[in-house]
Amino acid sequence: MTEQQLDCALDLMRRLPPQQIEKNLSDLIDLGGVSSVYLWDLDHGFAGVILIKKAGDGSKKIKGCWDSIHVVEVQEKSSGRTAHYKLTSTVMLWLQTNKTGSGTMNLGGSLTRQMEKDETVSDSSPHIANIGRLVEDMENKIRSTLNEIYFGKTKDIVNGLRSIDAIPDNIKFRQLQRELSQVLTQRQIYLQPEN
């Protein structure tokens, strides 16, 4: 969503009755899938939860589900021009691949992250826009972490378990490894000074 589209959407939202805010925030954050937003009052601000569920359709022989829960607490500062946002996000992910060459693999897990940030509150940057940006940034960070760390590590493990080399080549390689290890060990013994 571009900055101009976001500004237009926020302008329209300011004109809507208060009971529509949860639905509008849900629509603003939703990037596909199903989402719900619930808000409640606190002594010096408000809190809310944003629930997002995205399910894969099974195309390309990959099924999956992304469930994210974002709990936000907003404490308004005494000046009224800034607010402190505390966001706790949990993503639960499940994937299943079923490909002819590699078979079926299930992968699932969850990841929780927290962040706190002070933001300016104004007509051009109301709470709804600030929360939307925080949630979007958090989802992108979590997606990046899952992609780089978890999927990368899983790929390394799977590649370590599976061998695309023929068995005789693998045996020759292991034999060469043993021979090199023996030569290096012998060399190390000769290089160590005697006491």
TrEMBL record:
One of its GO terms (biological process) is barbed-end actin filament capping. Its main location: cytoplasm. The keyword Cytoplasm applies. Keywords: Actin capping, Actin-binding, Cytoplasm, Cytoskeleton. It is found in: Cytoplasm, Cytoskeleton. The keyword Cytoplasm applies. Transmembrane segments: none annotated. InterPro entries: CapZ_alpha/beta, CapZ_alpha/beta_2, CAPZB. One of its GO terms (cellular component) is F-actin capping protein complex. One of its GO terms (molecular function) is actin filament binding. PANTHER family: F-ACTIN-CAPPING PROTEIN SUBUNIT BETA, F-ACTIN-CAPPING PROTEIN SUBUNIT BETA ISOFORMS 1 AND 2. F-actin-capping proteins bind in a Ca(2+)-independent manner to the fast growing ends of actin filaments (barbed end) thereby blocking the exchange of subunits at these ends. Unlike other capping proteins (such as gelsolin and severin), these proteins do not sever actin filaments. Heterodimer of an alpha and a beta subunit. This is F-actin-capping protein subunit beta.
